[in-house]
Design goal:
This protein is of the alpha/beta class. It is built from twelve helices and nine strands. Helices cover 39% and strands 13% of the residues. This is DUF72 domain-containing protein.
């Protein structure tokens, strides 16, 4: 029984010297992060396909059961809108091949303009993908959340492909006006959609965005603690990513979420002890 938790990145300046040793060479940063969390969002691949040698370095730093949820490049999802991007897709799949089983799912994040009329395009794209990977789709068009027929249509397409629907839960962020610069920035950029807690596969993936206040973030995830505990009892193996607008405490929050679920499901395997930020002293 495994619950994997993680953050939106594995390096973040506010963590340096506070949670993670600093300085660290690039070839050690993911390894240090992996002592805190056992999953990470692969957001960097959205902006550019990494060199294969870079991905080989990532793979060397982590155990085979670590979970990368790797985002497809925006050239495929946003520029080509899933059509005519075979070359970009082939290049991306070749680049991430060294991750092996660590590539837990390939993440298809679609723009907010990708709506119910485009579901056929998504279905055709998913059919063309190699069966060697697991897939997860994130949609942002409001119709998929507000209208029963588009939601049911999307679920049928995802179900036929064995793909998961990834919720990006921003309800806590938008519950009250922003109180920091990071929250104000998030208000302008993040999707405002209802919470969705239905899993389609045995490997649900959740993206939860809280507030810069630890207390508000923890209060906002209560429903997810119960939902994830229920998934585990059903035999599912979820992955949950904890975000806050500034992500300053995201590492400890991810572990706290794991602890709260484990309090409800005691047989859940604990996370490893994190690497200390400073070397031990002799005195």
């Amino acid at each position: 029984m495994r619950l994997h938790v993680g953050c939106a990145m594995w390096t973040h300046t506010p963590w340096n010297g506070r949670f993670l040793p600093h300085p660290l060479p690039p070839g050690e940063r993911l390894r240090a992060y992996s002592t805190w969390c056992d999953a990470v969002e692969g957001n960097t691949t959205f902006y550019a396909t990494p060199a294969r040698a870079t991905v080989e370095s990532w793979a060397r730093q982590i155990d085979p059961d670590f979970r990368f949820v790797v985002k497809l490049p925006k050239s495929i999802t946003h520029h080509h809108r899933l059509t005519g991007a075979e070359h970009d897709l082939h290049t991306f799949l070749d680049a991430i091949e060294p991750l092996g089983p660590r590539a837990h799912a390939l993440w298809v994040q679609l723009p907010s303009s990708f709506g119910p009329a485009d579901v056929g395009t998504l279905a055709a794209f998913l059919r063309r993908l190699p069966s060697s990977h697991r897939y997860a789709v994130e949609v942002r068009h409001r119709a998929f959340f507000d209208e029963a027929r588009p939601a049911a249509l999307l679920e049928r397409v995802l179900g036929a492909a064995g793909a998961e629907w990834v919720p990006f839960d921003t309800v806590t962020l938008f519950r009250s006006p922003p109180t920091s610069d990071a929250e104000r920035d998030a208000w302008t950029k993040k999707p405002r959609v209802p919470r969705r807690t239905r899993a389609l596969t045995g490997h649900p993936i959740v993206r939860y965005l809280g507030r810069d206040s630890v207390e508000a973030t923890v209060e906002g995830w209560r429903e997810w603690v119960a939902t994830v505990a229920g998934w585990l009892r059903e035999g599912r193996s979820p992955t949950v990513f904890i975000h806050t607008p500034d992500n300053a405490d995201a590492l400890t929050l991810a572990r706290r979420f794991h602890d709260e679920v484990r309090a409800r499901v005691p047989e859940l395997r604990p996370l490893p002890e994190p690497m200390p930020a400073e070397p031990p002293t002799l005195f």
